[in-house]
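Onboarding guide, step 5: your first structure request.
Type a short instruction followed by the sequence, for example:

Predict the 3D structure of this protein.
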Amino acid sequence: MELLSGDTVVNRNKSANMLRSRFYVCPICGNVVHSAGEAVVSCCGVTLPALEAEEADGDHRPDVETVEDEEFITVDHSMTKAHYISFIACVTSDRLQLVKLYPEGNAQCRLRLQRGGYLYLYCNRHGLMRRRL
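The system replies with structure tokens like these:
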């Protein structure tokens, strides 16, 4: 009946729930790895720890603006080769949207955001940040 009501159904299961997602970033090659729960991940011969997300602070706060049927996300952050935003991701109970960003580019992307999830961004110097949607 929940599905037929037209309301958003939130997956509250302990397993098979994307809100249990973990992100890993290789310090050698910069590879971004995602798991939908606990995992042992290695890259370039190094076992990677799961990143712990902090609440987004002033320097890493994403601005969200509605454009057509998507959200335009921008982060007022430097994008030099030494200090940049590596990715922006939106995680809800049933999906992951991830956009990889690169130095010398813009810290912006377009995503279809849904309520009840988190918006993540990863700064190569300050780590993983998140904002509740």
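Each response can be followed by summary notes, for example: The first helix runs from residue 2 to 5.
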